[in-house]
Amino acid sequence: MASIRVNARKIVCIGRNYADHIKELNNARPSKPFFFLKPPSSILPPASGPVLRPAGVNLHYEVELALIMGKSLRDLDEKDEKGALDAIDGYAVSIDMTARNVQDEAKRKGLPWSIAKGFDTFLPMSGFIPKNRVPDPYAVELWLSVDDEVRQQDSTGLMLFRIPRILAEVSQCMALEKGDVVLTGTPKGVGSVAVGSTMRAGLRVDGEEVEEGRIEVEVKEKGGLYEYEET
Question: Can you say how many angstroms the Cα of residue 82 is from the centroid of all Cα atoms in its chain?
Fold first, then answer.
């Protein structure tokens, strides 16, 4: 798993890819995929410690299916489904942690979201899931719980933009390289998580839990000098 963090030169995150999630945050539905970046330093491998909440931050969870790229892609045609899926080495479960109040301010003021998404530990990830464990990436049930209460549970079949369209949109703008991570969006149910809570997440295929996809991580205070203040 450490190799995912070592090999990821960038993490590309697809926003607003599930209709009910768009509604719950009162966002506009995009006409094509849009994306933002998280730094590889935000990756938190399994059993590497807690998610750290910076002072003053309203911390939200977003469970997502992650694609781990196995080869470089440039200028992919969205109709090339085989080329898209062949470029994926495997999968992982991820939790895209978000400083929601920081992001909301950035949206209001037309500022970048980087700080809201990029803190250290803001991307807990499962172990690597081989492709043969996920024969159909659109028939996966993602789930996340906080203190054993299920908060998110939905099928990847609800994605608005499927993997070939996602990889085409990104690769026509910037090259995807071997080892890069692509997060495919989060379903409904996002919300805040408090210090002292434990998040668990995973995925099921045909109703069976995929063991490599399990995440269990606590939330603790970050400490240090950072404290959120409006820009």
Answer: 23
